[in-house]
Predict the 3D structure of the following.
Amino acid sequence: MIKVFDPTIRALNQDLSLREQNQNVIAGNIANADTPGYKAKAVSFEHAMREALDMQDGVKLETDDPEQFGSKGPEDVQADVYDDPNGVESLDGNTVDRAAEMAKMKENQILYNASVESLRKKLGMLEYGITEGGGNK
Amino acid sequence: MADFFSSMRVSATGLDAQMKRMNTVSSNIANAETPGYKRKDAEFTATPDRESFGDILNNKMDESVQGVVVSDVHEDERPPKLVYKPDDPRANAEGYVEMPNVNPVEEMADMISAQRSYEANVTAIGAATQMANKALELGR
């Protein structure tokens, strides 16, 4: 099967939706910064994404069967949401560190913007090719 | 469905809860000298973010994203301050009046905490808005 979108575009696309999910989780943590007994949640997907991209480059597996191993592309990467083990429990049992959540949110926001920018460039190049270098750009 | 509106809804529950907490603090400070008043405390509980019945049905959006609600406003059970005022009509047989168990310093600290949490939620909404707008640039 020929794919119009290369792995980079698909990885960026998935990255946007995972960062969106990360933003939701962080917003939940901030909203519950004063809730007794609430445990801070953390999201991780960077490692899985890197593995998915390495698979694309290193191991070439030609198959049409999506059930077969090696068919896992960057678009299949799922976020792992878990209780943050680094959280320090306060007297009311809450483990949210407000400053850390704000920092994580900003980092996530910057990386999201970077991904949007990269995706914009990639799509622009695709459009450039489709319109044979001209087009109404 | 996970989207930025989910993030905004969750932050909005945070704003609402902090506002209610601020109200109880105001009430406590206003009544710091009212005989018989008991200090009120807002109780926060995490609640799953679910917009509609459909969300509940497919339960796709798991329990990982939670908003917050003020589930109860309960009275502080600490004993009242007894002030000796034998000429006050509310004084008991020994001449003591039950003044509120409100500690103004505690209320001030609580107020600052509520204010900071409120601001953090506003910042979170701002971040979600900025990211959603950035994504719209893809269509330009």
Q: What stands out?
A: DSSP finds three helices and two strands in chain A. The first helix of chain A runs from residue 7 to 31. The mean pLDDT of chain A is 84.
